[in-house]
Design brief:
The protein is built from 29 helices and 6 strands. By secondary structure, it is α/β, with parallel strands linked by helices. Residues 280-287, 419-425 and 615-635 have low confidence and may be disordered.
Length: 635
C-alpha cells in the first residue's frame, strides 16, 4: 500500500475515534434534525428476529420526509447491530470518511497523478471534511460517495470493454441520489459528461462500439437504481415523500431567492462577493486554499495547451479538465444553495475533484518535483498534526468549548469553530466533557420502555417595576410570573426535545406532552425558564443581557412557582443548558435571547413514580415489643 495513503487512513481514523471516545455531547444541531425520526426504530429493529430486520430497514428507508434516507438507514443498521450509544452514533461516519480517502487516492491514481497518496492525505487532513465527519449532515455522506463514482467512470472510460466497470459506475451514481438532494447537479452532470467523454476519447477509435455499449449499460444501471427517487416507477413502486417531485414541490426557497435577485451587473457582483464570503467558511487552511485555486487555473491552462495533444498524457489531460469543468459548472448551484447561511457543507463533494485536478496540474507545470512534493508533504503533515492534536490540546489547556465558546473563535481554532462569533452551536468539532441536560433528564427518569416527559415554560416579566439601566423588577411580584413562553419567543418547534438521549438511556421511545394549566404532575417534567419584558426593555437587550438583569433569588422563586403548581413533594434540580438543547431548535441560528439557558428538572413524588411503574409497596416489617420479665415455665 502507498505509505501516504496508509498515513491518510490512520489520520482519518484517529481523529474521529478520539472525538467519539472523549466528546460527551449527544446529538444536537443538525445531528438531531436529520436523524431524530430514526431514534424510535432502534429498539424496534433490535427486538425483531434477524430474518425480519432487512424488511424493517427497507421500511425505514422508504419513510421519512424531505430527505432520502440512505445515511439514516446505515445509522439504524449499525445501532441495531452494535447497540445504541453515542460512540456508535459517531463512528457510523468512519466508513464514509475512509471511503472518501480511498476514493480520492484511486481517482488521483487513475488520472496519472504521480503521488496519489498526497491527494488522499490532503483530503484526510482537510478541516472542512474533518468537521463534517464529526456531525451528522447527510451532505457529508453524499460527498464521501463522490470520488468512488468519479473513479469508476474514469476507469470505464479508459477501458470501455470492461462491462463490469460501466455497470458498477451506473449503479454507484444511481445510489448517490439517495444520500441528499444537493448531489443532484453533480450526479446529472457526471452522467451527461460520460456522453461527452465517450465522444472525445473514443469517437474515432476502434473501441467506439464498445464505448457506446458500455455507456448504454451505464445509463440503464443508473436509471434502474435512481428511478424510484425520480418518480419514474410510480405505478410500480410508488413515490416516497422524499422523492424529487415531492421535494421540488415543497422546497421552493431556493427558487424564491433566485427569482428575487435583480440580475443587474452591480447586484450580480454583490451576490458573487456575498457567496464567496460564505464559501470562505470552507475551513481550508491558507496553503490548501492557494493550492486549490492555483491548481484549478493551472489545469485549465494545461489542458488548453499543446500538451493536451501529447499521446502519452491525452486521456489524463481530458479527464483532469473534466473534473475542473464539473466543479466550475456546479459552483453557481452550490452558491445558491448555501446562500441562506444554513447548509455550509453543501459544497463538500466538490472538494475531491478539485484536490485531484489541482495536484495533477501542479505536478506537470512546476519545475522541481522533489521540492513540490516536499512542500506538499510538509503542508499536509502539518494539517494532520493540527486536526488530530488541536482539539485535544485545546481541551486540556482551555475552558470547555460548550461553556465558553468565544474562547475558540480566533485563529488557529477557527477551522474547528467555523465562526467568528463564538456561538455555541459551532464548537461541535471540539471536544467537550459537559454532559448535555437531555442526558441528565434521561438518567433521572425512572423505569424503562417508554420515557414519559412533560415540557412546560415559565416566564418572568422583568419589565414590571423595572428602573433605568439594567435594574429589573421584583421577582416577588406574583403578577410577573406566567406559565408559557414569552411573546417574542417565536414559534417553538414541533419536536420539543430530542428522543436520542432517551434511546441511549435504554428507553424504547419518548412520549412528550404539553400539559394544560391544571395538569397534575404524573411524569418527569422539564420547566424551561424565560425572561420577558416590555418593548422598551427588549430594546435594551444589546446593552443589558437577560441574565444580567436576574436579581438574587431568581431561581429560588422559580422553584417556589414550581412547588406551588406541582406540590411541595416534587423535587427540582437546576439544569444548565448552554447549548439550548432543551428548546429543541435547529441551532444554526442564534437562540432567542429571552431563553435563560436554564431549566428545572421536576421529578414526581416517589408515590407517583411507584404507581407509574406498577410497584407494589412492601409491607412494613412487624416489630415485636420487648418482653419484660421471665417466661413462665412450660409456657
Amino acid at each position: 500500500m502507498d505509505r501516504w495513503l496508509a498515513l491518510a487512513l490512520v489520520v482519518a481514523t484517529l481523529q474521529l475515534c478520539l472525538f467519539a471516545g472523549f466528546d460527551q455531547r449527544g446529538p444536537d444541531d443538525h445531528d438531531d434534525f436529520y436523524t431524530v425520526e430514526t431514534a424510535p426504530w432502534v429498539a424496534r429493529v433490535r427486538a425483531a428476529p434477524l430474518a425480519e430486520r432487512p424488511a424493517l430497514l427497507a421500511q425505514h428507508f422508504i419513510g421519512g420526509e424531505l430527505h432520502p434516507q440512505l445515511a439514516q438507514t446505515a445509522l439504524l443498521a449499525t445501532l441495531s447491530a452494535a447497540g445504541p450509544s453515542y460512540r456508535h452514533y459517531r463512528l457510523v461516519n468512519l466508513p464514509f470518511l475512509l471511503l472518501a480517502v480511498l476514493g480520492t487516492w484511486a481517482l488521483a491514481r487513475e488520472l496519472g497523478t504521480r503521488h496519489p497518496g498526497l491527494a488522499a492525505l490532503a483530503v484526510a487532513t482537510l478541516p472542512g471534511l474533518i468537521n463534517a465527519s464529526r456531525k451528522w449532515d447527510p451532505q457529508f455522506h453524499a460527498a464521501c460517495l463522490t470520488p468512488v463514482g468519479l473513479w469508476l467512470l474514469a476507469k470505464a472510460l479508459r477501458d470501455p470493454r470492461r462491462w463490469g466497470l460501466w455497470l458498477a459506475a451506473g449503479l454507484w451514481q444511481g445510489a448517490r441520489v439517495y444520500s441528499h438532494p444537493i448531489v443532484l447537479p453533480d450526479v446529472l452532470a457526471t452522467v451527461l459528461g460520460a456522453f461527452v467523454f465517450v465522444g472525445i476519447l473514443h469517437g474515432r477509435s476502434a473501441h467506439t462500439r464498445a464505448a457506446l455499449g458500455g455507456l448504454a449499460l451505464y445509463v440503464a444501471a443508473f436509471v434502474a437504481i435512481s428511478g424510484y427517487y425520480f418518480g419514474i416507477f410510480e405505478g410500480l413502486l410508488g413515490v416516497p415523500d422524499w422523492s424529487l417531485p415531492n421535494y421540488l414541490f415543497r422546497r421552493n426557497s431556493y427558487w424564491d431567492e433566485a427569482a428575487a435577485l435583480s440580475w443587474t451587473s452591480a447586484s450580480a457582483g454583490a451576490f458573487a462577493v456575498k457567496q464567496l464570503a460564505e464559501l470562505s467558511w470552507l475551513q481550508l487552511f491558507p496553503g490548501m486554499a492557494l493550492i486549490a485555486a492555483f491548481g484549478t487555473v493551472a489545469t485549465v491552462l494545461l489542458a488548453s495547451s499543446r500538451r493536451l495533444l501529447a499521446p502519452e498524457d491525452r486521456d489524463s489531460s481530458w479527464l483532469a479538465l473534466g473534473c475542473v469543468v464539473l466543479v466550475l459548472a456546479e459552483l453557481p448551484v452550490i452558491a445558491l444553495a448555501t446562500s441562506n447561511r444554513a447548509f455550509l457543507h453543501d459544497w463538500l463533494f466538490l472538494a475531491f475533484p478539485t484536490v485531484v485536478a489541482s495536484l495533477w496540474a501542479l505536478e506537470r507545470l512546476l519545475v522541481g518535483q522533489r521540492l513540490l512534493r516536499g512542500a506538499l508533504l510538509a503542508l499536509f503533515l502539518g494539517q494532520a498534526v493540527f486536526v488530530v492534536g488541536a482539539p485535544l490540546a485545546a481541551r486540556a489547556s482551555g475552558p470547555d468549548p460548550v461553556l465558553e465558546p468565544a474562547a475558540y473563535s480566533a485563529w488557529p481554532l477557527y477551522p474547528f469553530t467555523r465562526s467568528g462569533t463564538g456561538r455555541h452551536m459551532v464548537t461541535h468539532h471540539l471536544i467537550s466533557t459537559v454532559p448535555p441536560p437531555t442526558d441528565l433528564v434521561a438518567a433521572a427518569m425512572p423505569g424503562e420502555g417508554v420515557a414519559k416527559l412533560d415540557v412546560v415554560d415559565l416566564t418572568w416579566d422583568a419589565s414590571r417595576g423595572s428602573g433605568p439601566g439594567c435594574r429589573s423588577g421584583s421577582v416577588l411580584d406574583e403578577q410577573a410570573w406566567s406559565w408559557g413562553t414569552p411573546r417574542g419567543a417565536g414559534q417553538l418547534p414541533r419536536r420539543l426535545i430530542s428522543a436520542w438521549p432517551f434511546v441511549f438511556a435504554g428507553f424504547d421511545d419518548l412520549e412528550q406532552r404539553r400539559p394544560g394549566p391544571l395538569a397534575p404532575l404524573r411524569k418527569t417534567t422539564v420547566v424551561r425558564l424565560w425572561v420577558d419584558g416590555a418593548d422598551a426593555w427588549i430594546g435594551e437587550l444589546p446593552v443589558c443581557r437577560p441574565e444580567e438583569r436576574l436579581p438574587r433569588g431568581f431561581f429560588q422563586l422559580a422553584r417556589r412557582a414550581v412547588a406551588a403548581r406541582y406540590g411541595i413533594e416534587a423535587e427540582e434540580d437546576l439544569l444548565r443548558d448552554p447549548t439550548g438543547s432543551l428548546i429543541g431548535r435547529v441551532t444554526e441560528w442564534e437562540i432567542d435571547d429571552q431563553y435563560l439557558n436554564a431549566a428545572l428538572l421536576v421529578l414526581p413524588p416517589q408515590a407517583e413514580i411507584e404507581a407509574e411503574l406498577g410497584v407494589v409497596p412492601e409491607p412494613a416489617p412487624v416489630v415485636l415489643p420487648d418482653v419484660v420479665g421471665e417466661v413462665p415455665e412450660g409456657g
